[in-house]
């Protein structure tokens, strides 16, 4: 196959430009041939140089080839050769003198070969007027520069002569030496498609007789009818969309400039507000110190009166407790005498068992266990032991009163009978129930010494001291609350000033604003720099889909995405999060909401703050 390369080179002339280049080479050869023939007929004419016509012919031919400038050393030596001339009719006159310099013949032959090689190189499948071989992607242009003598295969496997690029023979294993032919199946042909979208084409589709590129460049040597350039028509819809987007960009950017100005104004206002708050807080802090001193002073006075009042209340409490204790002791003694049937000053187990009050299970019999429970295992109690230990156990039984006494019905004439239940065995108790109505007379005290009514029983001086102290405490607490409020406001202002609201503050006007999106089931809300949420249209609570976190970049755009994280946790899943993708728009609106992954939401939000400055070349560059 290597022997076929010189022949395939000349078959690569595919258009008028390449044909013209070959014709120019031939013109140069013809002119040189004419010059050689003239040198054979007139050995002496124009010894100092060729005729102007000859030089003009050579200048045209040599300048057209661009490989040998007219004033190059080779061209000058040819022009000054005395063996070439033209007659007045500009027809060559051939000289039959054989005295030609042999060195001159060798130089001439070498020059002819050089010109032919250059002409062949121009027709190696390159785009006319370009030093880059056909089918090369723009990003790989530097790897295919014609200034290099060799070409390095893109996979680094080998180096080949530059002339073997696009020679319709696959030299590189990766096919990178044939970007413009179908010789290598794995290579790709680049369609520029000016006016539409560039694309890469399988090399097998190059010169297959089918127009795959809208500009027709893939069929450069197929022999088929020329492919029409349809890129402009195909790019019409894209251009219209680009024009629409350009208008949106222009309108949105005008609004963005206003938002940038608003952001700068907000920042200046916040800085001024921070300064005012700092001054106000300084004043409030001083007032707080004064009010605290006043509060402490009046509280000392209040404490004196309260201590006096509390000491009196404590004394009254002790007196009341002592009276209650004495009353309790009296009730215990009465009960002891009631149960001590034989009045020997000692309570026996038999006396306990004989008293129906100690019948716990209501079976009309006081068992040994019931008696032992009240006697705590003792066989008897004297009065002191009963007061110390037994009374607390039988106090509830004492409150029940004596058991009912069965008496025969009264007969006629028994008017002088005493009260029902009167018995000689109960001389002191006289058969009456032991309750509060029949307890010994003692000084009555308030039921609850800690009641609000008791706490309000202050004298006038104490009450006035409390009022003054309350007023001082209220003023001090108001000053403290005001100071805390000022500190909170200062923290919010500092947070605003330190936050990232875009390169020029264009996102600042969005703070504290919320935007909703409603679909068939939910109402979504995006509050910029705060949170995202979801709520059912059928009612119920709001579910947080994330709290504001930060901006995330996409390519060179630092503010392409707003990220919200650490929302409410999904059942058996992660914490919810939301990615808000920003797009240029004339108005601020949420355009779409989706849930591509479990508990991970995406929103598309249009805002003028995402618009970039329009450029006259944007639409052209995109196409």
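^ structure tokens above, recovered residues below v
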């Amino acid at each position: 196959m290597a022997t076929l390369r010189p022949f395939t080179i000349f078959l690569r002339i595919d258009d008028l430009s390449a044909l013209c280049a070959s014709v120019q080479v031939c013109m140069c050869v013809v002119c040189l041939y004419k010059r050689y023939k003239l040198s054979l007929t007139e050995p002496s004419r124009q010894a100092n140089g060729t005729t102007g016509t000859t030089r003009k012919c050579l200048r045209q031919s040599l300048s057209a080839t661009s490989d040998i400038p007219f004033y190059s050393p080779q061209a000058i030596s040819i022009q000054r050769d005395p063996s070439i001339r033209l007659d007045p009719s500009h027809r060559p006159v051939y000289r039959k003198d054989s005295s030609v310099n042999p060195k001159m013949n060798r130089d001439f032959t070498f020059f002819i070969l050089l010109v032919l090689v250059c002409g062949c190189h121009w027709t190696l499948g390159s785009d006319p007027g370009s030093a880059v071989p056909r089918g090369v992607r723009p990003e790989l242009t530097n790897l295919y520069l014609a200034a290099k003598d060799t070409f390095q295969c893109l996979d680094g496997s080998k180096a080949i002569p530059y002339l073997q690029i696009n020679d319709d023979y696959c030299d590189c294993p990766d096919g990178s030496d044939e970007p413009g032919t179908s010789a290598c199946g794995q290579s790709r042909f680049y369609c520029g498609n000016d006016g539409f979208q560039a694309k890469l084409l399988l090399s097998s589709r190059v010169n297959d007789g089918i127009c795959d590129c809208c500009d027709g460049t893939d069929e450069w040597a197929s022999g088929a009818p020329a492919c029409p350039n349809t890129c402009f028509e195909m790019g019409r819809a894209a251009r219209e969309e680009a024009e629409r987007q350009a208008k949106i960009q222009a309108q949105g950017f005008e609004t963005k400039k206003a938002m940038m100005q608003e952001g700068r104004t907000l920042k200046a206002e916040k800085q001024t507000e921070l300064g005012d708050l700092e001054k106000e807080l300084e004043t409030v802090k001083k007032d707080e110190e004064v009010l605290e001193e006043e509060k402490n002073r009046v509280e000392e006075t209040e404490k004196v009166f309260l201590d006096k009042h509390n000491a009196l209340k404590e004394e009254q409490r002790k007196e009341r407790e002592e009276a209650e204790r004495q009353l309790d002791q009296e009730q215990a003694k009465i009960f002891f005498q009631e149960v001590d049937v034989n009045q020997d000053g000692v309570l026996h187990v038999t006396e306990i068992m004989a008293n129906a009050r100690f019948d716990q299970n209501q079976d009309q019999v006081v068992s040994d266990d019931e008696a032992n429970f009240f006697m705590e295992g003792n066989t008897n109690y004297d009065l002191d032991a009963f007061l110390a230990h037994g009374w607390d156990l039988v106090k509830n039984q004492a409150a029940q009163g004596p058991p009912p006494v069965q008496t025969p019905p009264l007969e006629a004439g028994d008017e002088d009978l005493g009260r029902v239940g009167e018995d000689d065995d109960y001389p002191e108790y006289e058969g009456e129930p032991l309750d509060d109505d029949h307890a010994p007379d003692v000084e009555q005290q308030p039921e609850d010494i800690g009641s609000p009514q008791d706490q309000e029983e202050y004298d006038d001086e104490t009450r006035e001291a409390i009022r003054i102290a309350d007023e001082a405490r209220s003023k001090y607490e108001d000053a403290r609350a005001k100071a805390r409020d000022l500190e909170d406001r200062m923290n919010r202002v500092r947070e605003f000033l330190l936050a990232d609201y875009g390169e020029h503050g264009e996102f600042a006007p969005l703070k504290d604003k919320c935007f909703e999106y409603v679909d068939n089931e939910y109402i979504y809300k995006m509050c910029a720099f705060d949170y995202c949420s979801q709520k059912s249209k059928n009612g119920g609570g709001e579910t947080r889909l994330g709290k504001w976190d930060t901006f995330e970049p996409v390519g060179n755009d630092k503010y392409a995405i707003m990220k919200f994280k650490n929302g409410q946790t999904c059942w058996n899943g992660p914490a919810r999060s939301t990615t808000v993708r920003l797009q240029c728009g004339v108005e601020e609106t949420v355009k779409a909401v989706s849930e591509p992954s479990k508990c991970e939401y995406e929103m598309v939000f249009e805002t003028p703050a995402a618009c970039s400055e329009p450029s006259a070349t944007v639409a052209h560059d995109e196409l």
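The chain has a mean pLDDT of 76.
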